[in-house]
């Protein structure tokens, strides 16, 4: 049993605050795989900085993935060409950033191949992000659902767009900040594309 660690949800292109928490508790981190899928969370959506401000990228899931569906069983829907839309969105928002071209080939495959399950897709993306950020951690997942973890900091519900992020973030350069100023807690992709190898030092 992991003690003095944290249980984290598995997000799509997680926000910066997610990685701040992950670093604070690593290596004692376990990722929730058995929870019921909560809608309208970072599990299938991410925020990026567009020319018009905050833009939400949502991974559609197959109808029937209601709150009673276990997260590991939630299937991604490909009825809509969301991968093309997300990749075009990322290019539109970050093509002029300092490091988009540096990471472009790492991210592109995630918007071409079709992964069946949302959890698996998010996990593969997380593995990429950890490698790019040079964060070494073994991804451990839950085997059963536990409503509470007495020995862990439970971050399954606190890290969401409805709550203010836990850490006040220092501003870093963002491509469109002259339009709406610094936007806090966007997807880690925003930090990577703007800061590149310095992203870990920022975190």
TrEMBL record:
It comes from the Bacteria. This is WbqC family protein. It comes from Mucilaginibacter lutimaris.
